[in-house]
Design goal:
24% of the residues lie in helices and 33% in strands. The chain is α+β, with helices and mostly antiparallel strands. The strands form two sheets. It has a four-stranded antiparallel beta sheet. Strands 5, 6, 7 and 8 form a four-stranded antiparallel beta sheet that branches. It starts with a helix and ends in a 5-residue tail after the last helix.
Length: 144
């Protein structure tokens, strides 16, 4: 994450922090992926509909992840400007575990969920965010 994005994110997150809480990692992530088949279908359909003038491809909405020593905070990112738009979710780190890291050609991901079971949150990191991914993964214990 570049300096301008990080400063904007920290300015947004700072009022949410509890006294003594510190930020450990910030990263740009996605919470959903777009399949190759869906991308191809959109591109072909939009090219046919426009007579070949343009092709539209779907992209997931980027999210800003902030991991503190107590919580994981996620904000939706403005796709045009480098600033967080709205708070999406806050998870307490206590009791969270992660799945194994799945490596792909252009990204990697893992699922964060409560140790007792339940619904998880899939975090998809772009290829360039490998260092941030490793820091988040190291802070969360692997699921048994």
């Amino acid at each position: 994450m570049n300096g301008r994005r990080r400063r904007a994110l920290l300015a947004t997150v700072h009022p949410l922090l509890e006294p003594g809480e510190r930020v450990e990692v910030t990263a740009v992530v996605n919470l959903s992926s777009v399949s190759v088949g869906r991308t191809t279908a959109f591109a072909v359909a939009s090219a046919i509909a426009s007579g070949g003038a343009m092709a539209v491809i779907p992209t997931p909405v980027p999210m800003y992840l902030t991991m503190t020593d107590r919580r994981i905070i996620v904000h939706r990112a403005d796709p045009v400007f480098a600033k967080p738009v709205e708070h999406t979710v806050t998870l307490s780190r206590a009791g969270l575990v992660r799945s194994e890291i799945k490596e792909r050609i252009v990204n990697s991901s893992f699922v964060v969920c409560p140790a007792e079971g339940g619904t998880g949150l899939k975090l998809i990191f772009p290829l360039l965010a490998r260092k941030e991914r490793d820091a988040v993964a190291a802070a969360l214990p692997p699921a048994a």
